[in-house]
Design a protein that fits this description.
The protein is α/β, with parallel strands linked by helices. The chain folds into 5 domains: about 100 residues, 3-Layer(aba) Sandwich (GIY-YIG endonuclease), CATH 3.40.1440.60; about 60 residues; about 180 residues, P-loop containing nucleotide triphosphate hydrolases (Rossmann fold), CATH 3.40.50; about 180 residues, Rossmann fold; about 90 residues, Alpha-Beta Plaits. About 30% of the residues lie in helices and about 20% in strands. It contains 19 helices and 32 strands. The strands form 8 sheets. The protein has a 7-stranded parallel sheet, with helices on both faces. Helix 15 links the parallel strand 27 and strand 28. The longest helix is centred in the last third of the chain and has 15 residues. The two termini are about 50 Å apart. The model has no long low-confidence stretch (mean pLDDT about 90). Bound molecules: adenosine-5'-diphosphate (ADP) and zinc ion (2 copies). One zinc ion binds next to loops.
Length: about 725
């Protein structure tokens, strides 16, 4: 054992799968960097990697330690709380600490070249126009910039690039003359806070009071409120409480598209600094938000799931909007749940966590029922509007016009004529569902995946929605040579086409991954809707979330019947959430809403339970079944997934893992089973499903499994563990 002197061994977490951290030497004369600081280290023969110091020691089990190459941060990038969250998360999700840390870090901080984060200063004019003009009479550009700032400020210099390409430099000159102020974050204008001046509903007041009563400790609150019941209002008041105590808030939303909306709603109501964080921002911008939050320069961060790792100076609470949303679960790399980590973080930091939803996940509901979470119910809409009325349209033996029954078409007609907007929801993009041969029954499938191909009319191509591989349209059936090859089923493209044809006096806007690829397209579509003209909005699940379309009075849901044939035990939970969420979009404003669901099974007990009663009754009933069947949330699940070109090799490998598992009464192991989608991008996919009554023994089993010695060939087989999986595909 090597015996370096005191604290000269640095424990450095790296993005490598083989060890939680590696030991490095501190070069002589250098002061030991604290935990949370990034360092540059050598690895192997000639690799250099960014690592994060997690601790010190005066000894190491390893010989011939290499010295670190460079210290990259002056101060710890991650505070001890955030580091603690990552440490516990790594254990929970059974990944190495380094993998967890480098999943959390914005790309900027993972780079080897250590450039400072570019600043984007805010500028504000000081004093009156006239004296400044006199002072600047020989400096034309400075005068122009000053006047512009005086009129429109505060601004960032990039917004003034139309006046001068060197606006930033000119601002500096003005600053030297004492004519402008400069700040790292936008100046706060005291008088900009709008108070809508309404009184809280009784439900709101109770809920708010209950959260406020425990504002200095860890407690999870479930804000279980129907759409339009004023959950956002409660977030806003809580945030204002926090600001008054100089604390910060983290608000999580499920998708990028929802960040601007919530950001705006909150920013109009608080006198604090706000920042948005999501993957659509540049690397530098994301790093800047981290920096500002850590320094305490921003008060509120509104973010998608990755924001859960943001370091804060003084975090006071975490609010998770639409907590049931599956987007909170990362589906690649480290498969973490941002909602669950919010709770872990709340516990570590001893702060309250608020989960909001109109359709809480069964996991969350279960904790609310058991009393582990505080259950706060908002049962009335703030505008006293009744919930929308519901009709189930039987689609069996009905006449169809591009996917819609005649009755549905009539209803759309009525709502448009009344000057309202209509949403038609269909969770399938493209023109058709499949391409089939009427003579022999051949169906066009992807060569690389276990999936049908979708026809896209505007491209005149067949596309695989799982690997995006494209195929030309066959003129003859490749199996029997028949010409009777036809598309079957309806996608959003065909639906929108049919609607545009039938309702040619109205705009038809389509929201799906083909029609909306950029924020600009999203914005353009949104403008049509926001213009207030009657129109038809066609959309996939992109639109099922909290987007607020106040003029919608009719929501049509086109095809949901697949869920009834799903092998996923959560399929009906997800369907119920989707239907309630989509229905909630109808009639948020003045008009009474109407919802039409087209289904082959209008008599299905699912609909009876969900709509004759309500989501909560439905959920409680389903939870009883989950309990009886011993499924989550009453058990704990993990999936081990592998993929390989050879089905046989994969099967044998997973069988070996299954055999290698310690027998335990607590755990049932299913598989190896083919994944519901057996093949994707030429690779076979199989899984082992572990279900346990006891979380600890499940974790022990997996931990021990990860230590299992593998033969040379087996080491090449990609496999991973998904803890608390939310789907099985
Ligand atoms: P949720 O987030 O539960 O769907 P929101 O918070 O968006 O609901 O509230 C719906 C609408 O009701 C918003 O326009 C909001 O400004 C308004 N609102 C909220 N609370 C009240 C209240 N107590 N009285 C009147 N209007 C309210
Ligand atoms: Zn054929
Ligand atoms: Zn494919």
């Amino acid at each position: 054992m090597q015996k370096p002197s005191k604290n000269t061994v640095l424990q450095v977490a790296l993005k490598v799968p083989f060890a939680p951290y590696l030991d490095y030497l501190l070069p002589e004369g250098l002061q030991a960097p604290e935990a949370g600081v990034r360092v540059l280290v050598p690895l192997g023969k000639n690799k250099r990697l960014v690592g994060l110091v997690i601790g010190h020691s005066d000894q190491s089990e390893h010989k011939n330690l290499k010295p670190i190459l460079e210290v990259l941060d002056q101060q710890a990038l991650l505070d001890k709380h955030t580091l603690e969250v990552l440490q516990q998360a790594a254990k929970y999700y059974q990944v190495n600490l380094g993998e967890m840390i480098f999943t959390a870090l914005p790309a900027w901080y993972r780079r080897i070249e250590n450039r400072p984060i570019p600043h984007q200063f805010w500028w504000r004019a000081k004093g009156e126009i006239e004296p400044a003009k006199t002072l600047l009479k020989n400096a034309k550009k400075q005068q122009e910039i000053f006047e512009y700032l005086h009129k429109h400020g505060p601004l960032q210099s990039k917004t003034m690039s139309h006046i001068s390409a060197s606006a930033a430099q000119i601002c500096r000159q003005l600053q030297q003359k004492g004519l402008v102020d400069c700040a790292e974050v936008c100046f706060l204008e005291n008088d900009s806070v709008k108070d809508p001046g309404f009184q809280l509903t009784a439900d709101q007041a109770t809920a708010l009071g209950q959260i406020q009563a425990q504002s200095d400790q860890f407690q999870v609150h479930l804000l279980d409120g129907v759409t339009g019941s004023g959950k956002t209002e409660i977030y806003i008041r809580l945030i204002n409480d926090l600001l008054a105590q100089n604390k910060q808030a983290l608000v999580l939303v499920p998708e990028i598209g929802l960040t601007p909306q919530l950001f705006q709603e909150i920013s109009q109501r608080i006198n604090g600094q706000m920042a948005i964080l999501h993957s659509g921002l540049s690397d530098g911008a994301r790093a800047r938000v981290w920096q500002h939050a850590a320094k305490g320069l921003v008060d509120v961060v509104v973010s998608t799931r990755s924001g859960i790792f943001t370091p804060f100076k003084n975090l006071g609470s975490i609010l998770v909007d639409e907590e049931h949303d599956l987007s909170y679960k990362q589906q690649e790399g480290v498969r973490y749940s941002a909602r669950d980590l919010a709770i872990l973080r709340g516990k570590i930091q001893q702060i309250p966590v608020v989960l909001g939803s109109a359709t809480p996940s069964f996991e969350t509901l279960n904790h609310a029922i058991s009393g582990k979470y505080q259950w706060l119910k908002l049962r009335t809409r703030t505008n006293q509007n009744p919930m929308p009325s519901l009709t189930l349209q039987n689609t069996q033996s009905k006449h169809f016009i591009k996917g819609l029954t005649a009755k549905t078409i009539d209803a759309i007609d009525v709502h448009l004529a009344a000057g309202n907007q209509v949403l038609v929801f269909l969770n399938r993009r493209g023109w058709s569902h499949k391409l089939i041969c009427h003579d022999c029954g051949w169906v066009a499938e992807c060569d690389d995946c276990d999936a049908y191909l979708t026809y896209h009319k505007h491209l005149d191509l067949l596309k695989c929605h799982h690997c995006e591989r494209r195929y030309s349209l066959p003129e003859f059936c490749p199996q029997c040579g028949s010409q009777e090859v036809e598309t079957m089923g309806v996608g959003t493209e065909k639906l929108a086409d049919g609607l545009a044809e039938r309702f040619h006096d109205f705009a038809v806007v389509r929201f799906d991954r083909d029609a909306v690829k950029t924020p600009a397209q999203w914005q353009k579509n949104l403008e049509v809707v926001r213009s207030g003209q009657p129109c038809v909005i066609v959309g996939t699940q992109m639109l099922s979330k909290g987007h607020d379309f106040p003029l919608l009075s009719l929501v049509v849901v086109v095809n949901v019947d697949n869920s009834f044939f799903s092998t996923d035990f959560r399929a009906t939970e997800y369907l119920a959430q989707l239907l309630v969420q989509v229905s909630g979009r109808a009639g948020r404003a003045k008009t009474k809403g109407e919802v039409i669901i087209q289904t082959q099974f209008p008599e299905h007990e699912f609909f009876q339970m969900l709509f004759k009663a309500n989501y909560q009754t439905f959920a409680q009933q389903q939870l009883l079944e989950r309990d009886a069947m011993r499924f989550p949330p009453y058990t704990h699940m993990a999936i081990i997934r592998g993929q390989h070109r050879s089905e046989r090799v994969l099967d044998e490998f997973l069988q070996k893992l299954a055999n290698g598992m310690q027998q335990s009464e607590d755990i049932s192991v299913m598989g190896p089973l083919p994944a519901p989608m057996q093949k994707r991008q030429k690779l076979y996919r199989m899984q082992l499903i572990l279900n346990s009554n006891d979380r600890r023994s499940l974790h022990q089993t997996i931990y021990q499994l990860k230590q299992l010695p593998l033969a040379q060939g087996e080491q090449q087989i990609p496999w991973f563990v998904d803890i608390d999986p939310v789907n099985f595909d």
